[in-house]
UniProtKB/TrEMBL annotation:
One Gene Ontology term of the molecular function aspect: transaminase activity
Superkingdom as given in the UniProt entry: Bacteria
InterPro entries cross-referenced by the UniProt entry: DegT/StrS_aminotransferase, PyrdxlP-dep_Trfase, PyrdxlP-dep_Trfase_major, PyrdxlP-dep_Trfase_small
Family statement drawn from the similarity comment of this UniProt entry: Belongs to the DegT/DnrJ/EryC1 family.
A UniProt-annotated Pfam family: DegT_DnrJ_EryC1
Keywords for the protein's UniProt record, in alphabetical order: Aminotransferase, Pyridoxal phosphate, Transferase
Protein name: DegT/DnrJ/EryC1/StrS family aminotransferase
E.C. number: 2.6.1.-
Keyword Lipid metabolism applies: no
Length: 398
């Protein structure tokens, strides 16, 4: 371990080889840059991997989620139950549909939707009146009483939510279940793969994800009608049989281009290797940090039969000044990131719905103590050593 030199370690890096470079170059030797055989092959690879009937490639994970919300029948003024401890996209797509995100707090260990609270909220929102009121935002609900249509849960940091319990709840109240598995490609819940645990699942392929296409996303579902609808919406609302200038629905341009699809297909061929490398890096971190005072390493629930490491987020003990830790780590060339800043406290959410600090205390506590360390499948053991050593010195010096 060198202490005299400063290593410059990126927050995250894609894991790319000549296989990916050649796959993209090959597309450029053809005239087919959109809606060709690469996206079909990329979608087929997802169907095979997940054992699911339909996979629909789109140009971001956010676009994938947006189409799922529309396929779930969510309309203006409806309510969708979701989590404030996530990347903002999972809430924003509800707003895009003109609906109202209704938050419930999260489990303090996993950071995933708190089941007891979700059950109570669904019951109360269905009952209406005063019981429903306590779950709704202070303002910005519109004039009409909403109707609960769906639950949108997130597999946070690559760890599946409790999907069997969510399924039971959704069935009991006739709700659609949307799985934001954008952080969880390869994860398993009780031996079943993340992404196919709700009615519709989504993946995202930004460069920090388990596989990347630059920008891109994927929807997966077994629902034939919903799949046909989402395929049409992805392509400017063109239903099967429509010509290029016929549009059955109000659609979007959410198409994934062929270069990105070729990159994604090559990454899918290496998926197991990519997941294993991330597991190895997480294991190096765990080994070094589990003995460090003031640091909590990631918790893995018994229902998580395989964690898919998207990020490596530690929790600092209460009372440790996270800002100061981050500033001191930066001096060592170690970038870190607070993870996540709660969605309900983002300025536009506070302004529109009147949220305040204290509304979702577990989310806020995790948000205040969570620190993502540099993480990717291409990190070396020496780099992990360097980060852990720097963290140890910083914590000691406080
Ligand atoms: C990455 C991610 C998305 C999708 O993000 P895009 O940048 O639109 O691909 C959605 N939800 C969560 C929780 C994510 O981490």
């Amino acid at each position: 371990m060198k202490t005299t030199t400063t290593l410059h370690i990126p927050m995250s890096s894609p894991d790319l080889t000549n296989l990916e470079r050649e796959a993209v170059a090959q597309v450029l030797r053809t005239p087919h840059l959109s809606m060709g055989d690469q996206i079909e092959a990329f979608e087929a690879a997802f169907c095979r991997y997940l054992g699911v009937k339909h996979a629909i490639g789109v140009n971001s994970g956010t676009a994938a989620l947006h189409l799922c919300v529309l396929a779930a029948g969510v309309e203006a003024g409806d309510w969708v139950l979701t989590t404030p401890f996530s990347f903002v996209a999972s809430t924003n797509v509800i707003l895009y549909a003109g609906a109202i995100p209704v938050f419930v707090d999260v489990d303090p260990q996993t950071g995933n939707l708190d089941l007891q609270q979700a059950m109570q909220a669904v019951h109360d929102l269905t009952t209406g009146g005063k019981a429903a009121q306590r779950w709704l935002p202070r303002r910005g609900q519109g004039q009409h009483r909403g109707q609960l249509k769906a639950i949108l849960a997130v597999d946070v940091f690559g760890q599946p939510a409790d999907w069997d319990a969510l399924r039971e709840l959704a069935d009991q109240y006739h709700l659609k279940l949307i799985e934001d598995s954008c952080e969880a490609l390869g994860a398993e819940y009780k031996g079943r793969k993340a992404g196919v645990l709700g009615d519709y699942g989504t993946f995202g392929f930004y460069p920090n994800k388990q596989i990347t296409t630059g920008e891109g996303g994927m929807i997966v579902t077994d629902d034939d009608a919903a799949a046909a609808f989402m395929r049409a919406l992805r392509n400017q609302g063109r239903a099967p049989g429509d010509t290029w200038l016929q549009h059955t629905y109000l659609g979007y341009n959410y198409r994934l281009d062929e270069l990105s699809a070729a990159l994604g297909l090559a990454q899918m061929q290496r998926l197991e290797e990519l997941l294993r490398r991330r597991e190895q890096v997480a294991a190096w971190y765990n080994q070094r940090l589990k003995v460090l005072d003031g640091v909590e390493i990631p918790y893995i629930a018994p229902t998580t039969t395989r964690m898919s490491w998207f990020v490596y987020v530690i929790r600092l003990a209460a009372g440790i000044d996270r800002g100061q830790v981050a500033a001191r780590l930066a001096e060592f060339g170690v970038p870190v990131r607070p993870y996540f800043l709660p969605i309900h406290l983002q300025p536009y959410m506070q302004e529109r719905f009147g949220y305040r600090r204290g509304d979702y205390p577990v989310t806020e506590d995790l948000g205040e103590r969570g620190l993502a360390l540099p993480f990717s499948g291409v990190m070396s053991e020496e780099q992990v050593d360097y980060v852990c050593h720097a963290l140890q010195m910083v914590l000691k010096s406080l």
